[in-house]
Amino acid sequence: MRKQITPFRVGAGVLIALVVTFVVLLKIPSGDYLLMPDPAHPVAPLVHVVPSKPSTDTGELFFVDVQERRASELESLFPWIHPHSTLIPAAQLIPPGSNDQANMAAALRQMSMSQHIAAAVALRHLGYKVKIVPNGVLVNQIIGGTDAAGKLQPTDIIVSLNGKPTMTIAQLRAIMANVRPGQWVTLQVKSGKVTRTVKIRTVAKGGRALIGIAPSQSAGIKLPIKVTIDSGNIGGPSAGLAFTLEVLRQLGENVTHGYKVAATGEINLDGTVTAIGGVEQKTYGVRDAGAQVFLVPVDQGNAQEARKYAGPNLKIIPVTSLEQALRALDALPPVPSK
Questions:
Q1: Which residues contact 235 (CB under 8 A, 6 or more apart)?
Q2: Where do the H-state alpha helices sit in the chain?
Q3: Among 242, 302, 286, which residue's Cα sits nearest to residue 267?
């Protein structure tokens, strides 16, 4: 005799199976990362300058970050459950040979470096004497598919190449000019207090030999006054411009001219502002904070992308340098009186 299964029991069984599948997929990490908006944050509470100066700046300055975490299998299948999020393969974010923990540690080192650079750039703009001593070539980004991937990490500092010092990017390029594409080079690399030897096979681009990195200048910086910036567990270099502007504000400069201004972009020692990632998410984060103006790097189409998500009430100002950003803010029309 067969026992009859009612439609109710079949439906309940299917529902239970779906719920179990949902829970399992939600707990299993995938091979992707999620980038999600985070409301822009006021910069002032993070920056402390001693001695500071009174300012006539009545506006507010914001920095922007992105919520970044490994996606679950469920989120990889249905990324739309998080509005305005971007799903990217982990390989685009985690360099080969690295892992989540090492990547976060590198991001925190990038943030620390950007804070020192921001303070130096701001003080030099105001005429302070800042001592800057080049001490190597910073590995800012690693080019996928090259021999450098898996051997170098972001924030490594190259101090010599083939036995010759590379305290500046110019020195590195001068030595590389005598290297043929495909040849091996020997690097001395500092990571924190550890120095190691790395051998890398160069790649060809435009007839030149390249290591496979995007370089930045590393330097020892000595400030004439005390500037401290505490960003907690937020990593990466993209708040550099915002920190620079806030140091100027705390030293008496009128930066925002009464507006709610958000800023993003990596600041370099020469005052130039370069590209960042997560533009879509950062633009929505700026909108959520109620900012009126958003300074975004021109580099790599960042500002052009921000305009797509700005909406009608957010003005995007493309920037290439600190000086140009300040001129653009100074040119804003007076804030309408309430």
A1: 104, 106, 107, 108, 110, 111
A2: 7-27, 73-77, 100-125, 169-176, 240-250, 279-288, 302-309, 322-330
A3: 242
Full-model pTM:
0.83
Number of domains in the chain: 2
Domain-embedded: residue 18 = no
Same domain, 231 and 118: yes
Encode pLDDT of 268-310 as tens digits.
999 999 999 899 999 999 999 999 999 999 998 999 999 999 9
Q: Half-sphere exposure of residue 336, counting CA atoms within 13 Å on the CB side?
A: 2
125 and 55 in a common domain: yes
Q: DSSP label at 336?
A: P
Question: Are 228 and 122 members of one domain?
Answer: yes
Q: Is residue 10 domain-resident?
A: no
Spatial distance between the Cα atoms of 95 and 149, rounded to a whole number of angstroms: 6
